[in-house]
Design a protein that fits this description.
Organism: Dichomitus squalens
Oligomer: single chain
Radius of gyration: 30 Å
Number of strands: 21
Low-confidence stretches: 534-539, 617-656, 670-675, 708-730
Number of helices: 16
Shape: globular
Distance between the termini: 36 Å
Helix content: 25-40%
Largest sheet: 8 strands, mixed
Protein name: Fungal-type protein kinase domain-containing protein
């Protein structure tokens, strides 16, 4: 600090130092003395006093500090001065990488420090890295007061987010802050401007409450569109990250649209002009095409733009100069903003298997329409890209509309064209920027292969399985252990993209079964309607036959694709627990199964027929008695009974094919086995009750009843609340959890 204060190198600035760290490093900030703005609204020039640069530990600390600032503020770049004993160097960091000047010994050249501080003191906020399209909203301003008023809860006018809720009479209010909003959107907006109340925001927003007015340019002669935001609801935390950072720095905000007077979704990211040698369009351009073609269940575009003059500069100095941690050529990136009308909820709010199937079915419909009408594939089907969108439904009763949850397929950043014989070689493979644990096995193992429809449909199956495991009752001992085992992707040089496939996933496709990974008893995964509360009188478990049957039939189609591409071989892995393959797969034609995923028709028919016959009771209510199937000619009655007992059909076809008959016989055989098990459990229960009665009559407390078979544990999902982790919400009006932050 004496360099600045005693030597008066920069009279209008002060150097504030943080406490000395355990590793001997010390951080400092150069701040203007007369600037009364909060720290989050001012440009920051960092100083690092160290003796270990450029060690990996020192560079990791620098990256963590920079990433925190990019999350807290709206920046284009950051400057930092590194002081190592008697030498110093200057670093400039943006989303493409970092540039460093050569080391200078300031003890031998006395002009180095005065020249450095003079240059830093004359730079403007924009030159020091502040985004000119992000205007800080200072405490006490009119916009600051309006945001406080907007965040207040309004029970009478806001619309409940819960499915089935009645929509109140919407009356347009002259007060913009009192205009009707979705209740969860207003609650999320309040959390974003008071981030200290949100434990998920710690530590990036533990002490700062930034508020901004973000501008999105609309054209040369049109004023920019204005949005009021707080802290992001989805971002990548600066802690516990690798040295290699996420260059895009994607953040999602609950934003107030000053033009439409509604709370909307605003996405801020640094996009690449080229991604994997494929010329990628802006996401807003893709959404504009989808909206124009009438594709349902995709976000509605409000506006989007590349912010003028905000491109990375690191790539200009490559390969000249000292650029740290650049294994390959830096990619030029542009600062990009996108606003959409829908503000969606995460899949963790799903409580019923029927709701989960309906939401994913909507996203399959969106994917099919995009492929047919716009000729593109999403290319990143994943758990985080399928969301819940509450909508107003007036089809049942126009006089009393209700809330209906629909699926929403988001993040159309990296679409790929539908492959044809003409463009098959021109369509580039995706080698990064996708969720590989949901990618199809064939796509991950093939070195030169364009993305196809069957790959995307297999990804939908993995999302359906992942969502069910996370949020529906099942016989798993640990949900986390199953997800970590089944969806594991580890670095491997044996795969073209560098990631391996989980052996549990390969076994599920090869044997057409899903084991309770990582259990070693060979038992298969099952889902229930609700937790077992002592069992029924006959000892039966509350098995969700409809969902289990749908999942099994969908898996058989993915199994058919796997068998066709692997020369119809069945593989057995010695390191997996012993278990017999599904007996039904030996009787089915794998070619017919694989053909189901050639297009979206079979999957859509499977979902629609299942939803049509699905029982309409809640998770925490015991299922009705099993209904004996009527003859096939009765149509809907047959399929409704099969949905209750484990079968799923596609319609009321007049005659069944040979493969359908064999599959139906296999299902009925499984039902018979289940019935025998239930009868055995009922007999054991009666024996146990008789033994207890004898104990009471004889008064012999030492007599023990005969042992009873242990029933599989039912794992109940716990509501993922933003305020109370691991406990159910005490307030029925508590808003749903926001989209999960990526770490």
């Amino acid at each position: 600090m004496w360099l600045v204060d005693k030597l008066r190198l920069c009279r209008t600035y002060s150097l504030s130092l943080e406490p000395l760290a355990q590793n001997g490093e010390q951080w400092g900030r150069l701040q203007p003395i007369s600037d009364r703005r909060p720290a989050w609204a001012r440009p920051q020039v960092f100083f690092l006093f160290t003796t270990s640069f450029p060690s990996p530990e020192a560079y990791s600390d620098i990256i963590e500090k920079f990433e925190h600032q990019f999350i807290l503020q709206h920046l284009t770049s950051i400057y930092m001065v590194i002081m190592d004993r008697y030498c110093m160097r200057l670093m400039r960091y943006d989303r493409a990488g970092s540039i460093l000047t050569p080391w200078k010994d300031y003890t031998r050249d006395p002009t180095v420090l005065p020249d450095l501080f003079w240059r830093l003191s004359v730079l403007t906020d924009e030159q020091l890295g502040l985004d000119p399209t992000a205007i800080p909203i200072l405490p006490g301003s009119s916009e600051d007061v309006f945001m406080d008023d907007l965040a207040r809860k309004r029970v009478d006018t806001d619309i409940s987010w819960r499915e089935g809720s009645t929509i109140p009479d919407i009356i347009d209010s002259p007060d913009p802050a009192s205009a009707p909003q979705w209740s969860y959107a207003r609650s999320w907006f309040g959390d974003s401007i008071y981030p200290a109340q949100d434990p998920m925001a710690i530590p990036d927003f533990a002490h700062d409450h930034p508020r901004w007015k973000l501008l999105v340019p609309s054209g040369a002669d049109v004023p920019p569109r204005e949005f009021l935001v707080g802290v992001p609801i989805a971002f990548r935390c600066s802690e516990k990250r690798d040295v290699k950072v996420d260059e895009r720095n994607t953040r999602v905000f609950v934003a107030y649209d000053c033009t439409a007077r509604q709370l909307v979704c605003l996405k801020d990211t640094w996009r690449a002009d080229k991604e994997d040698t494929y010329q990628a369009e802006r996401e807003g351009t893709v959404l504009e095409k989808l909206n124009g073609a009438g594709v349902p269940f995709v976000p509605t575009l409000i506006c989007d733009a590349d912010l003028p003059g905000q491109e990375t500069r690191t790539q200009r100095f490559w390969p000249i100069g000292d650029i740290h941690d650049c294994a390959k050529d830096p990619v030029q990136r542009a600062h990009y903003r996108l606003a959409t009308k829908e503000l969606c909820m995460h899949l963790c709010e799903v409580k019923r298997s029927r709701t989960l199937v309906s939401i994913i079915g909507d996203c399959v419909t969106a994917h099919a329409s995009a492929a047919e009408l716009v000729n593109i594939l999403h290319a990143d089907i994943s758990y985080d890209n399928i969301m819940i969108c509450p909508t107003v439904d007036s089809t049942t009763n126009p006089a009393k509309p209700t809330v209906k949850w629909r699926g929403m397929l988001i993040d159309w950043e990296f679409p790929r064209p539908v492959p044809t014989p003409e463009n098959l070689l021109a369509v580039a493979r995706i080698t990064s920027r996708r969720s590989w644990k949901y990618a199809s096995v064939e796509y991950m193992q093939a070195e030169q292969r364009a993305l196809q429809t069957q790959d995307e449909l297999e990804s939908f199956f993995y999302v359906l399985l992942d969502g069910a495991v996370r949020h529906l009752p099942s016989n798993l001992e640990s949900v986390r252990e199953f997800v970590d085992a089944f969806f594991a992707t580890t670095p491997s040089q044996n795969y073209p993209h560098g990631w391996s496939v989980s052996p549990w996933k390969l076994d599920a496709l090869d044997q057409c079964r899903i084991l309770r990974a990582p259990a070693r008893d060979g038992s298969q995964l099952q889902f229930y309607w609700h937790s077992r509360r002592g069992g029924d009188e006959d000892g039966a478990e509350p098995i969700d036959h409809a969902f289990n049957a749908l999942l099994q039939e969908y898996l058989s189609w993915c199994h058919g694709v796997r068998r066709v591409h692997c020369d119809s071989k069945l593989w057995h892995r010695e390191y997996l627990p012993p278990a017999e393959p599904n007996p039904a797969i030996k009787k089915l034609d794998v070619g017919e199964l694989a053909a189901k995923l050639d297009d979206h028709g079979a999957v859509l028919a499977l979902f629609q027929s299942a939803l049509k016959a699905w029982p309409e009771y809640l998770v925490d209510v015991a299922p009705p008695a099993v209904v004996k199937p009527e003859p096939r000619e009765d149509g809907e009655a047959f399929w409704r009974a099969m949905a209750l007992q484990g079968g799923v059909g596609e319609g009321t076809a007049p005659a069944a094919t040979e493969s359908e008959v064999l599959a139906r016989d296999a299902r009925m055989q499984m039902l018979k086995i289940s019935a025998e098990e239930r009868r055995e459990r009922a007999v054991e229960t009666r024996k146990e009750d008789a033994a207890k009665e004898k104990m009471r009559e004889a008064g012999a407390a030492s007599v023990k009843p005969p042992p009873r078979k242990t029933k599989p544990r039912v794992n109940l999902p716990v509501r993922s609340s933003r305020r109370i982790r691991g406990e159910p919400a005490t307030d029925p009006d508590e808003p749903p959890s926001k989209r999960r932050r990526r770490r």
